[in-house]
Amino acid sequence: MTRRGRILLKTLVWGACLVPLALLAWRAWTGDLTANPIDFVTDTLGRWGMRMLLASLALTPLRLVLGIGWPLILRRLLGLFAFFYVSLHFLVWVVLDHFFAWAQMGADIVKRPYITVGVSALALLVLLAATSTSGMVKRLGARAWRRLHRIVYVAAVLGVLHFMWLAKVGRIEPYVYAAILAVLLGVRLAGAVRAFRVRRRGTRAGVTSESSSDNRPPRRSIVARTEIMGGPDMAPDHRTKGADAPLGLPRPPALGAVPGGARTHPRNPGRPSRARFVQGR
Ligand code: HEM
Fold first, then answer.
1. What is the pTM of this model?
2. Where are the domains of the chain?
3. Does pLDDT of 225 surpass 60?
4. Alpha-helix runs per DSSP H in 75-219
5. Residue 160 Cα, ligand 1 centroid: separation in angstroms?
């Protein structure tokens, strides 16, 4: 996708993500927040937080199953919007529901399991949002960062549990979210298993073919070095450039990649590239 296309797409998604908030503001302005405005605002923000979290998690399975990789550039944006809506949801609880009664809120967190679970999910989202910048990827190292960001799945499971716990008997919406999350997790798990198998097969093939011809130590095959799985779901999007290989196929090495994993500058092979993280997500 061209730079212009990316900017346009992101602008559209920014606008779309702000629509629920704008509608809420409009309803507040026109005095149309139902008979129980605090509950209505809390629920609306919580539901949109949940939906955006699931949307951000759906992008990698989309690439794994259908081979459509371009929506991955929206992953960080959607993840951060999920965090934004859940934070507002929490703030309404703190400010409007409890009016900063910290002792009362502490008791609620301890006594009510759905609040305990919701706060735990929020704590994980805070951690993910705080480490979502490109600077944090560099500081932590791509591999550690990717591992850390897998906790987005834990946050989503806790979010769904929170909803299931508080919903009235007979309400199906939380079960719909749970089913969607189960499918997304299933696809990721299948992708991980498949990637592991391909890597193992590649390593074996690399070892037997390369070590049999001479006495040099075997080199790891390109398949073994190439990450197949998509990475975390609040990812800085410049790292998703090479990320559109469908399930089970290794991605091509990044521009400027040289055997052994080191990368050089695309136009000046003598210079190390700054795009250290382009591959491997
Ligand atoms: C990832 C984190 C969270 C998600 C995804 C989430 C999502 C939701 C959803 C979907 C609902 C139900 C909306 C409905 O009934 O239509 C809800 C309700 C609620 N949430 Fe959360 N929530 C999260 C975190 C929190 C936190 C941190 C708190 C407060 C400490 C909280 C407090 C509440 C309360 C009090 C309600 C019930 C409001 C009512 O109907 O009286 N949630 N949340």
1. 0.78
2. 3-169
3. no
4. 75-92, 102-111, 113-130, 134-140, 142-149, 151-166, 173-213
5. 10
